[in-house]
Protein: Oxidoreductase (Flavoprotein)
Amino acid sequence: MDIRKIDNALSVTGQIQPNDVEEIAARGFRAIIGNRPDGEEPSQPEWRAIAAAAEAQGLQARHIPVGGAQTVESQTPAFAKALAELPKPALAFCRTGNRSAQLHDRASATAQPSGRRRHRVVIAGGGSGGLAAAASLLKRRRNLDIAVIEPSEQHYYQPGWTMVGGGVFRAEKTAQREADVMPDGVTWIRSAVAGFDPDAQTVELDDGSRVSYDLLIVAMGNRLAWEEVEGLEDTLGRNGVTSNYRYDLAPYTWQLVQQLRSGRAIFTQPAMPIKCAGAPQKAMYLSCSEWEEQDTLGNIDVQFHNQGGAIFGVQEYVPALMDTVRRYGIGLNFGSNLIRVDGEAKKAWFATEDGEIERDFDMLHVCPPQKGNAVVAGSALANDAGYAEVDQQTLRHTRYPDVFALGDCGSTPNAKTMAAARKQAPVVAVNALNVLDGKEPGAAYDGYGSCPLTVENGKIVLAEFLYGGKVAPSFPAWLNDGTKPSRLAWHLKADMLPFIYWHGMLKGREWLAAPADLSAA
Structure:
């Protein structure tokens, strides 16, 4: 039996057998609580057999099943009553022990005026990185007590929004209910994180309550700072102003592309770091591909305003991108940062080395400035830039050894892409379990990131790289040369990656994402 101690009064475990009760009594337990309904599995022993074995050993027994109409919430009062009445210590069981742990947590929260709960692992954020980390943890330790704090009811596959803006996907294909993707066995706390107190090992929720942890994983993403461009929020989604960085706006991008037959289309990119450094270009290239198909590209002045000084940060992929720029006749404006928009007047202003310039537009696709998550930035976990300060290999916090971070909220100097989070989650899982077991981290993240640059509808330049911009292709050159446009890479992006996300990454299936050994890094 894998028995996990919750506190001095209660421990939890997975399914027990009647012949286990003698050992349970020998370990000092004085009561057994069954939280599994009879008949969940054909081989499962009936509760009455376990209760009889408990009675024979002088243990008290109580059946508080959770399943079907009997939810954790509805059975919490009965569980709290049992904890108060039964002799201590008690052992509670279900199939894996997680329902028993959830009942304990809810009962404890009800009993404490402060609303404080405690979990072995708390994950702040139920987006891509948070759920992938939870799934990878459970893959390795099925009965681990994990709570995920996430207020959203919808979960999004954000890399798909580029394809929505290009008319390839419908927006609905990129969204599922959060409840449907939450890993089985975790406790979902449907609240927002309001603060961190790593010295007290607690997370504050937006209702004022606190959740305690033995180990914390922060996966809260970064912040899209729309407000930093004057006038932008007032005109988003109308007046020809759009962005594929929002679920509700990506369909408007496609609408504008279909409607535009002449005039000027401007695409912007702010200072790094941003989510997927290639996303602003992807929107531009897919738009140009459609205009080329409709034979209207020659009537449209396409301009790319990039605050940076290069088309892409990894030199090996630049030649193919420059060929694409020349093919579509795109004007490149480096060192040019969007600072103000007047949607009704169809004007945009940019800050450059030569001063402020004004440009008219008929379509404006904006990549917003991006910052560290506000809650993370306001906490002791943050570095000066507002990101959770972690070791770039182990993803462990540099000052708080019981804290890890991954995804867009972390300080690692990699490209902020979904592919990075997919590689980081198993590393966090291995290292977090090591720390819980009193060991040092043993896995390393190498900075892998991937940016499938959609240079046209049907072809992609598959950029893959590690820390320092080192090219790291997943496929041999004879199968796919990532430095050149490829139809194979398009099928990977359009057909395979969404499946890998929903059915692999979020399920703990680490396809092509096995963590590397830290000693070999």
User: Anything to note?
Assistant: The two ends are 36 Å apart (CA to CA).
